[in-house]
Design a protein that fits this description.
The structure holds three protein chains of three kinds. Chain A is built from eleven helices and one strand. By secondary structure, chain A is mainly alpha-helical. Chain A has one domain. In chain A, helix 1 crosses helix 3. Chain A is globular. Chain B is α/β, with parallel strands linked by helices. Chain B has a single domain, classed as 3-Layer(aba) Sandwich (Rossmann fold). In chain B, the strands form two sheets. A five-stranded parallel sheet of chain B has the order 2-1-3-5-7, sandwiched between helices. A two-stranded antiparallel ribbon of chain B has the order 4-6. In chain B, helix 2 links the parallel strand 1 and strand 2. In chain B, helix 1 runs antiparallel to helix 5. The longest helix of chain B has 21 residues. Chain B is globular. In chain C, the strands form two sheets. In chain C, strands 4-5-6 form a three-stranded antiparallel sheet, with no helix packed on it. Chain C has a two-stranded antiparallel ribbon with strand order 1-2. Chain C is globular and about 85 Å long. Classes of the chains: A mainly alpha, B alpha/beta, C mainly alpha. Strand 1 of chain A pairs parallel with strand 3 of chain C, so a sheet runs across the interface. The complex binds iron/sulfur cluster.
Chain lengths: ~280, ~150, ~625
Amino acid sequence: MNIQIIAATILLAPVIGGLIAGIDRIITARMQHRVGPPLLQPFYDVLKLLGKENIAVTNDQSLYAVLYLVFNVITLVMFVLQMDLLLILFMLLLAVASLVLGAMSANSPFSKIGAQRELIAILAYEPILISSVVGMYFVTGSFSISRILQIDRMLFIDLPLLFIAFTYVLTIKLRKSPFDFSTSHHGHQELVKGLTIEYSGPSLAMIEIAHWYETVLLLLFAGLFFANNLYVAVAAIAICYFAEILVDNIAARLTWQIMLKSTWIPGLLIAVVNMVWVYIKYHV
Amino acid sequence: MMGILQTAATKSPWIVHFDCGSCNGCDIEILACLTPLYDVERFGVLNVGNPKHADILVVSGTANYRNARVLRNVYDQMPWPKAVVAVGACASTGGIFRNCYNTLGGVDKVIPVDVYVPGCAAKPEAIMEGVLQAVQVLEKRKETGETYAG
Amino acid sequence: MVSYLLLAMILLPMLLAAVVLAVTDRRFRNVCVLMVSGILMVSALLIIKTGAAFVEIHGTLAEVLDYVIFAADVAISLIALYFGFKFRSIVLAVLSIAQLIPLVLFHIQINFAGVEKAFHIDHLSMIMLLLVNIIGPLIAVYALHYMQEHEHHQHLTASRQHYFFATILLFLGAMNGLVMANNINWIHFFWEVTTLCSFLLIGHDQTEAALANAKRALIINFFGGVAFILGIMFIYSRVHTIAVHEILTYSDVSVLLIPMALLVLAGFTKSAQIPFQSWLLGAMVAPTPVSALLHSSTMVKAGIYLIFRFAPVFLGTWLADMSALIGAFTFAAAALLAISQTNAKRILAYSTISNLGLMITLICILDIYAIYAAALLIVLHGVSKALLFLCVGTIEQAIGSRDLEDMDGIRQRLPLTAFLATFGAISMLLPPFGVLITKWIGIEVTASLPPVMFLIILGSACTVFFWAKFIGKLLSHNPEAEKIETLFLTYQGPLAIIAVLALITSIFMIEFSNMFIAPFISSAYLGSSDQTIPNVLISDFAGFYPPAFFAVTAIALLLVFILYNWLKPKRYVQPFLSGENSGHNQFYSLSDGKFNAGFRNYYFSSVLNEHKLTYLMNSIASALLIVLFGVILR
Ligand code: SF4
């Protein structure tokens, strides 16, 4: 049973993630009054990359790309197996860490700047991610997803502010504008793709696929706030992601100072307010 | 499997644009291809701005003594299979800068060029046509397994 | 049998210290150090095999020992007084007198009485013994070669190594005494000996900076010593005993709250909690083996040990909650400050302070998991940090700098050392290694104290930042760097052994817990009540089982290697510099000169101004301390 779930996750997640990326690109194009690429474009891209030559600056750089993929897969599997949320966040950290280390190991200024900026991004979103998990703990009394799913309340009703904070850092985590400064998207070329600049061909494909897994994981995470009702959850995820695309298109790049300040001061503040009230509600 | 990889290769040409010292006329036309009017992303084309991610090198402007080395570097840093499109009269032959004291002529003096797009400035339609022809070149390279050697 | 082992572990190193000091021959010294190292390791293992026990000392011997130790303790205060005059430091002079007078008065009050059960070896002592007697000797052996090179760089006319090794041996003996003594006066004595050793070793190089920092360390630790002796006097006035095991049986907390607060304060100074952290940072001027041995893996744990030892008395009180808060504050603040550092040793020092804070938090939380995590962290941190310090020391000797920014391409220059350092740093940061697990437990158990939990969350985010920078630098690639590593058995050997130990402790965390921590909890916390604790307790944690976790990671890594072989780069190119490359990471500038494309890590020196932030953090922490005492002295 577990094996089947694991296999299904590993096989299905990239398909879903890729489709989401395809829809993302079409919607983005429509918002810009363009026709946009075909829905399957992300798959074409990745397949093309897989068939290309793998050139690199150092010999172990591709290793980190693979690590990034493997850890993302493991994290998603852990999520689907309904394990401990804190543990899942730590595994997610491991995944990002391997990407950062890969960028640092290639001794290239652009990728190093990307790595530093990604680290700042971690610094910005990690407290909020952990706070959301802790908020869920205050409501449900457990860090494990299987127990959180047994609660028949909608977590969102208890944790609305945390959900807002979470969607805010989701933009950072998905590396979307205005916070796309560690791997700039096409169009924004001042960092020529930052973190991933020194990757090419198959190793770049690994990173792309890993990003699909990551997207699925984060959206599932967002769905956890609405877990007791499947339809609401799916609708919430859809709205959430649409909002991300919208923001991605209408926002100009911000500086990392603004990101750090906005997540640490108002972001953490509303997270804390929310945590305090659920704590009082359920524990005092 | 190889078949899928090949079709995929034709559907996602990523380009890197290098300006060798054009008058900017061609550059503007190249960027015009990305605008809603032409929307080159319909064909999966992305302007990635980074040779290591790119399949097609789009060059505008004349090669000269200063930029030849840079052009060569950018070309070398692209993974195989790759193709080069020379956009505009300058890039193709040297254009109005031909025989100037500091120029070498068309970019084919420095790197192998696959598609020449004429015009001064080249029209966006022509540029898109050139890129799509380069895609055919890419496909053939992929099929024959021809590697870069030089 | 046990008493002989005690002799071997406490007295023998101290005696040999005197011999090493007297006989300056290098080969003789090396033999001595190696011999003591072997003896310490074997005796520690033997003592652990014997199990928990009291060791009684009777009759004249006991009396003589009490007098000797009292005399030695007085002597230490006098030495401090002497240095107070020598450095013209009024503070130090006042502190040493403030220590001397209560010490003498107290001994007169108790009429130089001793404790029959002079030593108590329980499972907490065993954990500390493992750390001191396995990591300690390895570092000492490492120092044999290190000091040789160190003096070579210093161009001394006469070697001062005999001072160095004598102090190290003295320290090892004192540390063993500290963790086994049952007479609280003796603990105080050994505590002061470690302070003195630390002072001597920080000042070992005799440079201006070394002496200034040594002075600061002495002042702050003497402040702790004064708090300690006052705490002892208070305890005696309340419960009329100086035997630790008897003090621990007092169930009425309110009686002992003030002395406990004083002892906790002493622990804070020794464990360099904010606002007392400055001495530990200054201590980084000492030769690196000293930083590894005293200032990260063992001596600073003495403070932790003291708090841990007495925690059962005051757990669940205001004192415990406040201490947990101060610990958590230190955890977060030190991690934040570590981000702004470029000096590798200072980064490690801040990380040490931060981890000590986490330990204190875990100790002060009334939860079995927290106790588990605290005891585990003591060991895991000790091993990993010792490894890291030694690696940085090796790198520093080889490249002549301890600045992180100079370590580009260290992977090519010193492959083995860089690998071990990376391993050490990873074991401090990433799963499946144990340190992260303790942080995880830290977050899970502090759900009852939200502010503490909040600080731990912030702290862990900062921790990721500075460790990732550290590891990234160690891994960064520079094809032009040449290999300059020279291998010595006694140099890289200890490093490799410590690395293996770090791996083993992480894998066998649960076995370790069942062997040492579970018995400790049932004897110290559950006491007479017949409550039992579950054996494999971590099974509660989402089925977390380290060997399985490591196995999964190993399989994942195997998979990665297979994939990687398929992915292996076919062609190497230069990094992207907008096509301007004129070499690897080198470009032509406008004036046609060749320039290196350098990139420094971000240190946020404008936002994270160390000086200003330290001031701020110190004020906050002092305020917390004052609140703590204000409420307790009510
Ligand atoms: S071809 Fe004409 S428009 Fe294009 S760069 Fe040359 S001069 Fe300018």
